[in-house]
User: Fold this.
Amino acid sequence: MPDPVLPQSFLKKIILIITLLFGFGFSSNGQQFYVATSDLNLMRVTITPNGVLSEAVPSCASGQFFSIAVSGNKLYYNTLYGSLYQADLDNSGFPQARNCTLLPSYSTSSNALTIDKAGAIYFVNGTQLGVITPGSAKEIILGDMPYYSAGDLIFYKDQLYMASDQGIVKIPVNNPAAAEMYIPLPGKAIFGLTTVTDKGALKVYALAGGGSGTDLIELDMENRTVKGTIGSVPFVVYDAASNVESGQASIIEIDAITISRECSVLNKGHAEIVCKPHISQYTYTLNTGESNTTGVFGSLAEGVYHLTITADGGELPVETDFTVQAYPSQTPLLTVEKKNPVCDLTGQIKIDAGARNNEFNVIYNGVTFEMGHTFTGLTAGSYHYTVVTKAGCLVDEKDYALTQDVCPPIDILSVQFAPECDQFGKANVTVVTKDHPDTYTYTLDGVTNATGYFSSVLPGTYNLIITSSGGDKKETMVVVPDFRIVNKPQLVYIIKNAVCTALGQIRFKAAGDIKGAARIKHNGDLYELDEVIRNLLPGVNHFTVLDAKGCILDELDIEILQDSCEPVSFPNTFTPNGDGINDVFRPNQNSNPVYYQLYIYNRQGQQLFRSASVYNGWDGLFNGKAVPAGVYFLVAKYTMCDGKSYFLKSSLTLLK
Assistant:
């Protein structure tokens, strides 16, 4: 084993600490790889037939990458102070590193990292070789080597190699002390070592720093020689990594090809090709000439398709076939109800799938509606509707046309009149027109409405005006009948005037066509027809004739008179002497009892006289002879016109 010399890796660390710069690198497939620069930032390097290209890679840990390794789409990196992190590599479109996460259980403090096929991370710290196996709780030191690491590790054909300060060293992982110089590179500062894929084969490059740039030196690992410098990058590289640094060439692997119905195109197929994780950019090409980098193809007709997948990282192309089946129409049985616009009214369209309404929606003007929706406010023209599933996939497209229907003229069928029920002498008017789609405005006696019904209209002749929202207009004369005459019932009435203390009475009776008269209303009380209405005060009394519904047929003002009522009174003396003055004893002659009885007695109780008429009095005779002067007694019974009866006992004096 040769004596160790001062490793250039120490110089690299010293320079980084002094400058406080950080570098990192990303791995790539094939002719692409990632490097950590001397300022600890990330670049992606691509080897092309036209030269070496490089581009900055945004990341979640800029200025922190010191040593790097890649496995699949995972990036592992050490910071300048020995912390180990992992991040996700995203090479779709513009490359970038996301989701940087600290692995707190490990502290490698190394300037060289790589990863093998099993996912074990190897690192070098000075001359010590260590490993972190998947699932282990702590790093393991495998042993010391007789060489210092200059800055990188790779696997090639299951053998571990290291960039040392003297050249490329081959390391037996089970016996690091047996490491040997494999390809001497005297005078070269090899900080980076990477493996790439070129047309399916592995190539190894050593990255030799010098000045402000880095040369890419191709190595012949089989013959342990240097092939030559293929180009350079304009920055100093501190570490490099690629997706094939495990020594296993990257290949294109198809994980799944999913064929389904195209959602946005009628009766077409949709193919989605999913490959295993990779960081090269894949190009997917069909035999139809269609090509993309997504692996998604739409609007595919029924048939067999030949697929070719190529990669920009040097992987060998992959070819396969897939079949798109026939996709029959899913269109449900639709019924369409259309209503054309007419006059100033807009039209309607309703699209219905019956019992399958809950399976579909309808899109109109970019807005989604439930199947069975009625589209309103439509003018004449053509309307395009898209039928989709509830998931939004296209099922059918329909176009329906509406035409402008002719607006019919105003046609008055009748004008109907009826008496107002509770307003005597007034009528209600109903204008009946032929059915029409537009809106009519009716005007009668200064009143305007949209119903054609007018209330509380007095008898007379009026001008009826009807206008339509469609632009038509019609005028006609309307004669409102006088229902006070037309509906007047033929009745007679019998009056009994008020007399004495008795109030008046009246009774109505039919005398012909009573026009449905059923009751008489007076002072808020209702009476049946032919019923005696009593207790009428003298004077004018108001009576309302009603039909069975309580509607007014007639109104009458009838006067109840106060008949004369003179009570009976008697004088207390009379002189039957033949002088013609006060010769007869009788009551006042203007009295008008309906019943009358008068009895006269002498002191012995003998009845001398009897009369049943106020006009028949006592002349002072009894049995034809004059009775002597003196005091006599009378008894009177009488009833007045109000039915009130009286009984009177008194005395009278007969004078000679």
User: Anything to note?
Assistant: Residues 15 and 21 are 9 Å apart (CA to CA).
